[in-house]
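User: For a benchmark we're assembling, each entry needs the component sequences followed by a predicted structure for the full assembly. Here are entry 17's components. Please fill in the structure.
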Amino acid sequence: MKQETREAILALQKLYPEKRSALIPALHLAQNEVGYLPQEIQNEVAALFGIEPNEVNAVVTFYDMFYEKPIGKHLIHVCKNLSCMLRGSDQLMGKLCQKLQIKPGETTSDGRFTVIPSECLAACDRAPMMLVNEKVVGPLQESDLDHLLKEADHA
Ligand code: FES
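Assistant: Structure for entry 17:
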């Protein structure tokens, strides 16, 4: 990590009574710099917190918003939680992955799109919904997917 990211993480730690409480925002800072969180970055973060790398890895692998592998230019989170599932998110995910010729969790071979299955994204009133490049879209139908991908690609 860059020195400024390391310093920002150390400054974050001072905002909390327990420095470990700053772990999630610290991981966001590291990911913003690097684009994802490979093991060596997780190790660096662990060292800054004085904890074991596997403790950092447990957090990274628990949350959908952290990535251990490089991600595509456009990131699509597909909510698979209850409200979205009841309104057809499984079928939407299937169709989206079919169009992109990938499986959930994968990145297209041209590096343009990554599709991540997610837990509730707090927009249940828009079910079935997705987060496309951090923008909430929904309720969606299969017929919206071509336009959605085209729009994301031109963003
Ligand atoms: S269940 Fe999909 S946004 Fe809440």
